[in-house]
Amino acid sequence: MMAPAVLNGIRLWPRTLRARLFVVLLAGLAIAHAMSFAVLFSERYIAARSVMFNTLENDVATSIAILDRLPAAERAAWLDQLGRGSYRFVLGEGTSGNPVLKADDAEVASRIQTALGAKYPIEVQSIAGGGRRFQAHLRLSDGEPLTIDVTPRGVMPVADWLPYVLIAQLCLLVLCSWLAMRQAIRPLANLARAVDTLDPNSNTPRLSETGPREVAYAATAFNAMRDRIAQYLEERVQILAAISHDLQTPITRMKLRAEMAEESVDRTKLIQDLDEVERLVKEGVAYARSAHGKDEIASRIDLASFIESLAYDYQDTGKAVTVGELGGGAIMTRPHALRRILTNLIDNALKFGGSAEIEVQRRADGTVLIGVLDGGPGIPEGQLESVMKPFFRLEQSRNRDTGGTGLGLAIAQQLAIAIGASLTLRNREGGGLAAEIVLR
Questions:
Q1: Distance separating alpha carbons of residues 174 and 179, to the nearest angstrom
Q2: Does residue 105 contact residue 126 with C-beta atoms inside 8 Å?
Q3: I want to staple 437 with a disulfide (CB 3.0 to 4.6 A). Which of 141, 304, 313, 370 is the partner?
Q4: Do 132 and 105 contact (CB within 8 A), yes or no?
Q5: Where is the HAMP domain (predicted)?
């Protein structure tokens, strides 16, 4: 991949596709416009030059013929009438100068000589001074000297309004290029946003399938992919639910048979293993269903009462769960999903810290932060994100009482995303872990 050009710390090639296409299109149109302008200007210059020379030849030849036929006494009165903007006639020898002419002046002099013919031989000299100027010296039929003082001018003087037209054309090119890039890139940007926020279980609008054929085809393919992903997720939940349902009966039978057996160490271990299997199956299904947390209808709840009720439930069973600052007020959320999130976080705090404290803060930006704090050993900084992954356990032993199934935090994270919240973990100063949920 070619690296972008950089000159003195300034990036010459833009990063975004929109800017790159804009630069390419604008440069192409500007160059094409400049080429067209150059061709038209050249054609006009050649045509105007040809007309000017033809006019110059005819006018000079006619004017000298008139002067030659006039009486000598009347010639001076006609000089101003016969002169033009680029030349004038002077009776007399004129001003001496340099016989070497510039290429353009030599061409004009040659045209004058051709127009006059052999009857009036001329001597041309360049006159020193500012600008282009030369004089053609000749003698009329009666021997009187006549000088043609020529001051060549530009073939095509530029109109005062022409720069404004060019600026307007450039602005039009920029505007059209920007509009073209906007129309070309907008479907790509919409597709990128749809991919970035892809959630088959949400009720977000489907990608519009209108527009040019290629854009509509891409949108249709994306929507079809989204539907397939949603179908696969739904099938996963149904499969896990079916497995859970099918396993419940044999697990229950095995537990009944184990409980009816004689008391022994093996009987106790067997019952514990069956309890672990049953819990693992239930939590696996709960994790699969947590992605569908948006199926629950949102309702308005009083967050302080909700938190206190949850804490009282734990306190009734003798668990060390306390309530700190409560500043939430009423919020719109999915209460069952939120309760499951908090339950998992409190259970995690009780397991590793022995106690849990819940606090609620309403921030200035309108978000609500719910924190579950514990006084446990915390989590190594490098593993704060890893513990959110399914089946990841800091305790690598096979003991479910210390290591768990590795799904509690994963379920909480999945449900938080489903209800539009965010879940983060951080180590507290002085020890312990803080699990923070931010509700928007």
A1: 9
A2: yes
A3: 370
A4: yes
A5: 182-234
